[in-house]
Every structure is written in structure tokens, then in C-alpha cells.
């Protein structure tokens, strides 16, 4: 479970996240949506302890990230596909992560299998395709067998096979009872992946409800239309859209 309580982040230039509260429940995939600049990344960064809230809190498994003794065993995150040293081999990267987080080697073998990377374990990161790098990021997120997974724009740039793989993986992880939060700009993909949605605009909560209810509540023919109707006032580049 992820609990975001009155979370606020102000910068000199304005407010990125504005008194935001929602819960991400286990056992289902929750889509995290919002137009560019809505505050999704800032929210995720605060959940992961990478940014300090101005006010409010973000809890993972009932605790602030900074209080977690072994964070990788509680929450796994895919943020940047490329935060691996280019010369490092796939297995060595995961072994290093495992060692520095007090996890056994057997977890490395398990996540290599789970992500279909066993055959590429000896390859240097720089030789991997984007799809393979994405799998490596997911392998790292799964290393501690966490109950909470946060995937920020996981399908960007992936080919259809990669997109389907991520979709099925997210659903399988949720089916195992984990909490899965996925952010994406691709509405058609979200409609296929997420059964629940949290939608924000200008740092504020706009909707928190099941995907099918979201579409019918905003009288859209599909998720994209419903999203456009709901967020049309929150788009950053609109005239008069100063923050
Ligand atoms: N370090 C920072 N300093 C000042 N402003 C910031 C900083 N980080 C983010 N912002 C501002 O906060 C707002 C929210 O940004 P954020 O990246 O969280 O949005 P987002 O929903 O993830 O957008 P996108 O979909 O484009 O990735 C934006 O207006 C952004 O310019």
C-alpha cells in the first residue's frame, strides 16, 4: 500500500504538488495520470525519498521511505532505464545491487529468469536494446521481492512486444497481491493495463476511481477522451496557464 497524505511540494517558481492525498491499494494495477507538468514525477520522487515534501507525507508499507531499513525489500521502482554503468555486465550490476542491499545471490538468478534476461546476463549494459535495458531496470526493481512496485513511464520507446510484456508483468505482479503504480502518457495502454486510476492536474487530485467508471463519468468513448475532458483546464501550456 502507498499512502499519500496532504502531500505538498513548493518550489520558488510555484507549487508542483498541492495538498495531494490518495491511496494505492494492493492487488490491482493503478494508473497514475496527468498532463505534462502535473506533478507525477515530483510525487513519485517524494514517495521514493528522493525529494523532501514541503508538507504532508508519503508512506510505503506504512513508513516514510527514509525510515525503511531495507528499502529494496519494500518498494521497487523503475524510473530511468539508463542508470546503469554502460560497461557493467547485466549480472554484475544486479549482483552489486544485491550485495549492497544485503540480498542473496539467488535473488539475482530469480530476477534474471523472471525478466527473460538469463541469456543476456554476460552482456555489457551498453550493448542492450532499450527493451532489454527496461527489463534490467525491472529486474533491479524486483530484486528485493518488494510488495510495492512503482513504474514511471515503463513503456516509453518500447516495441509492441515490450509493451505487452510490461502490461502482463504489471498485471501478474498485482495478481500476486502486490501494490503496482504505473505512470504513463499512453492512454490506450493505460486502459488495457490499469483497473484503477489516480489522475492529477496542477498538482491536485482530479480523479481516483476504477478505470471503467472514469471513462463513463467523463462521458468519453474511451480513456483518452475522458482524460482530455477532465484535464483540459490543467494543461500547462494553455493560455492563462500560469502556475
Ligand atoms: N526542481 C524543480 N525546481 C522547480 N520546479 C520544478 C522542479 N521539479 C519540477 N518542477 C516543476 O513542478 C511541476 C511538476 O513537474 P513534474 O515533473 O512533477 O510533472 P510531471 O507530471 O511528471 O510531468 P511530465 O508528464 O511532463 O513528466 C512542473 O511545473 C515543473 O516545472
TrEMBL record:
Transmembrane segments: none annotated. The keyword Plastid does not apply. The lineage of its organism: Bacteria, Bacillati, Actinomycetota, Actinomycetes, Glycomycetales. It comes from the Bacteria. This is ATP-binding cassette domain-containing protein. Belongs to the ABC transporter superfamily. It holds the Pfam family ABC_tran. It comes from Glycomyces terrestris. InterPro entries: AAA+_ATPase, ABC_transporter-like_ATP-bd, ABC_transporter-like_CS, P-loop_NTPase. PROSITE patterns: ABC_TRANSPORTER_1, ABC_TRANSPORTER_2. One of its GO terms (molecular function) is ATP hydrolysis activity. Keywords: ATP-binding, Nucleotide-binding, Transport. Residues 2-227 form the ABC transporter domain.
